[in-house]
TrEMBL record:
Segments traversing the membrane: none
Domain Beta-galactosidase beta-sandwich: 307-363
The protein's Enzyme Commission number: 3.2.1.23
GO molecular function, one term: beta-galactosidase activity
PROSITE patterns assigned: GLYCOSYL_HYDROL_F35
UniProt entry keywords in alphabetical sequence: Apoplast, Glycoprotein, Glycosidase, Hydrolase, Secreted, Signal
Highest classification ranks of the organism: Eukaryota, Viridiplantae, Streptophyta, Embryophyta, Tracheophyta
Residues covered by the Glycoside hydrolase 35 catalytic domain: 1-283
GO cellular component: apoplast
Protein name (Swiss-Prot/TrEMBL): Beta-galactosidase
Length: 724
């Protein structure tokens, strides 16, 4: 998808692609590097350059990014005496070694702008000010060391640190946030430019979250505000978020990432955000001479409206930004003898200080909504299942349950815990319907419990509070009873101080309600099995799946079960997704490749799953006989799962008398702005139906419009006659 996404970004008016470098992807084991296939960093940077764009390289190597372990490889935790992101010799040694390797790779391929390549900026560390106080003096000395270490690598391009007021030497401190034009206090030295490394186009989501939105209008306002106040660069975080495949998502972060960005998870243009920002970029481009050469001025036009303009004395070079901070009412103001109408909380851009070519609140671009369409090919999938063996009594290797992160070492999400108890008949309550209760207090993230091989229940924490308590009644029998717990991780932490000291897993286990009182099993002696037997056998591959006997799915399967089916690639070239109706929580593989975790039963406050559809890249598919394998943690029935294609073919437009002409209709000739003809050909689509039209004051958004208090009944007929 790289070339297609880069081209869409360029068509959207961008000229820089910003990317992280993922240490735990490139060095998953100490000294063993991976820059192959989708991890080919050099190829990615070259592809950016080949498309005529610049690149910003955010090395971190701590990156946060809602990415597993913040990008740090797990093996770092096992380095003796290490303290992450501190003035700590072991951490600094490994950090410098990795950063130097990446810089040397870039230099070798001549990828820095100083060598004629596309990389114009590099970043070291990431939002360190948010944790610096926790490290006291060691934090101050560490950040100085990190900056000076980076400068010593002599890349020939500037280094930046985001959210770092004390960025050392020539390292540029930058802003992250939604409204840096109003919140950024500025660079820490007068010779440094104002750079905005993260303009959040929405909000990342975790399982349990409702949908997150940030309007195109608010995003555009923030960017126009930034450049009106002498900003030099803005980066959208994210312009395309994509998918957290496999186990790359951080704790509780959804598999879908920043889907509300201008390019959605599938790389489709989310309108009007993509188009409205494209128009903004064109308007700013018309102002470039004034912004680069002009002298900045500020003029108050009313209590809530100001004009910020850049003018080169003695020439016609002039550009103005008329900004209204009145969030409730529109205003009409005078600037240089002319009246201008400003919607509430908006900025109008005048590239010649006369003509309004763009207003942040007035969206001229098209709107669209996304459709998930059931594939026309065979979609009645035939499912087979294989139940994971539930271990009853693993060899005891510890008096206490061991810690989950240390056991899994970022190789799996799962660990089996077992212990046994001998229950005397006299301990049992003789009254019917009064059973003992199994209680497990865990530091996270989720758990499925069994007693004597029977499913007891499940529980989980959240992104905010990872600890939880599982408490369910159990049927015990006189004599030996087997307690089995499946401890589950939902990603490693990605932020905060002292990440190397985070813990997860069961911390207290007891049986309540026995005649003799509470039986504490915490120190009872525990056995452990890291990973599922199906993972070891690679049941998600054709070869591994052939090693076991599968049975046809007749009804809902038991907990901890593997399911598989085969399907043909859907028709056409549209993106592909799978809707996981009927399932609970687990992992999905397509032709042996994991497309990430799913979690259908963790619903948002709206009563819906946080994510129902999961992206299957077309590049993972063969024309026919594709293998889909699912590991499901709880009881589920896969028969309602659907293969879908994804489009944004529902389009809408909205216009008022206050909308300026499209910014595409303006061009610069001899420092004058004149209307231009747009000869762009329409895309290869045909409008087949008009679902809604209203001349009046319609309500709602694209795909969900409704008639307002004022409406012309002939609206739909008039529109149909024109465009059908």
């Amino acid at each position: 998808m790289w070339p297609e996404l880069i081209l869409k970004a360029k068509r959207g008016g961008l000229n820089v692609i910003q990317t992280y470098v993922f240490w735990n992807i490139h060095e998953p084991e100490q000294g063993k590097f991976n820059f192959e296939g989708p991890y080919d960093l050099v190829k990615f940077i070259k592809t950016i350059g080949e498309n005529g764009m610049f690149a910003t390289l955010r090395l971190g190597p701590f990156i946060q990014a809602e990415w597993n372990h913040g990008g740090l490889p797990y093996w770092l935790r096992e380095i003796p005496d290490i303290i992450f992101r501190s003035d700590n010799a072991p951490f600094k040694h490994h950090m410098e070694k990795f950063v130097t390797k990446i810089i040397d790779m870039m230099k070798e391929e001549k990828l820095f702008a100083s060598q004629g390549g596309p990389i114009i900026l590099s970043q070291i560390e990431n939002e360190y000010n948010t944790v610096q106080l926790a490290y006291k003096n060691l934090g101050v000395s560490y950040i100085q060391w990190a900056g000076n270490m980076a400068l010593g690598l002599n890349t020939g391009v500037p280094w930046v640190m985001c959210k770092q007021k004390d960025a050392p030497g020539s390292v540029i401190n930058t802003c992250n946030g939604r409204h840096c034009g109003d919140t950024f206090t500025g660079p820490n030295k007068p010779n440094k430019p104002s750079l905005w490394t993260e303009n959040w186009t929405a909000q990342f989501r975790v399982f349990g979250d409702p949908p997150s939105q940030r309007s195109a209008e608010d995003t555009a306002f923030s960017v126009a505000r930034w450049f009106s106040k002498n900003g030099s660069l803005v980066n959208y975080y994210m312009y395309h978020g994509g998918t957290n495949f496999d186990r790359t998502a951080a704790s509780f972060v959804t598999t879908r990432y920043y889907d509300e960005a201008p390019l959605d998870e599938y790389g489709l243009q989310r309108e009007p955000k993509w188009g409205h920002l494209k128009d903004l970029h064109r308007a700013l481009n018309l102002c470039k001479k004034a912004l680069l050469w002009g002298k900045p001025n500020v003029q108050k036009l009313s209590a809530d409206v100001e004009a910020r303009f850049y003018e080169q004395p003695g020439t016609k070079v002039c550009a103005a930004f008329l900004a209204s901070n009145n969030s409730k009412e529109a205003e009409t103001v005078k600037f240089r003898g002319q009246e201008y109408y400003l919607p509430a909380r908006s900025i109008s851009i005048l590239p010649d200080c006369k003509n309004v070519v763009y207003n942040t609140m007035t969206v001229v671009s098209q709107h669209n909504s996304r459709n998930f369409v059931k594939s026309r090919k065979k979609n009645k999938l035939e499912w087979n299942m294989y139940s994971e063996t539930i271990p009853a009594q693993l060899q005891v290797d510890s008096s206490l349950p061991k810690e989950l992160y240390n056991l899994t070492k970022d190789k799996t999400d799962y660990v089996w815990f077992t212990t046994t108890i001998n229950v005397d008949r006299r301990d049992m309550n003789e009254r019917k319907r009064i059973n003992p209760v199994l209680r497990v207090a865990s530091l996270g993230h989720a758990m499925v419990a069994f007693v004597n091989g029977e499913f007891i229940g499940s529980a989980h924490g959240s992104q905010i509070e990872k600890s939880f308590v599982l408490q369910h009644s159990v049927d015990l029998k006189p004599g030996i009873n087997f307690v089995t717990l499946l401890g589950t991780l939902v990603g490693l932490p990605d932020s905060g101080a002292y990440m190397e000291h985070r813990y997860a897993g069961p911390r207290g286990v007891s049986i309540l309600g026995l005649n003799t009182g509470t039986l504490d099993l915490t120190s009872n002696g525990w056995g452990h099995q890291v990973g599922l037997s199906g993972e070891t056998a690679k049941l998600f591959t054709k070869e591994g799946g052939g090693k076991v006997t599968w049975t046809k799915v007749q009804k809902a399967g038991p907990p901890v079960t593997w399911y598989k089916t085969h399907f043909d690639a859907p028709e056409g070239k549209s993106p592909v997704a799978v809707r996981m109706t009927g399932m609970n929580k687990g992992m999905i593989w397509i032709n042996g490749k994991s497309i990430g975790r799913y979690w259908m039963t963790y619903v948002s406050p709206l009563g819906e799953p946080t994510q129902s559809e999961y992206h299957i890249p077309r590049s993972y598919l063969k024309p026919t006989d594709n293998l889909m394998v699912i590991f499901e943690e709880e009881e589920a029935n896969p028969e309602k799962i659907e293969i879908l294609t994804v489009n944004r073919d529902t389009i809408c437009s909205y216009v008022t008398e206050y909308h300026p002409p499209s910014v595409k209709s303006w061009e610069r000739k001899n420092n004058k702005f004149t209307p231009a003809v747009d000869n762009a050909k329409p895309a290869a689509h045909k409008i087949i139906a008009v679902q809604f039209a209203s001349f009046g004051d319609p309500l709602g958004t694209c795909g969900d419009y409704a008639v307002g208090t004022c409406h012309s009944p002939a609206s739909k007929q008039v529109v149909e006659e024109v465009i059908l």
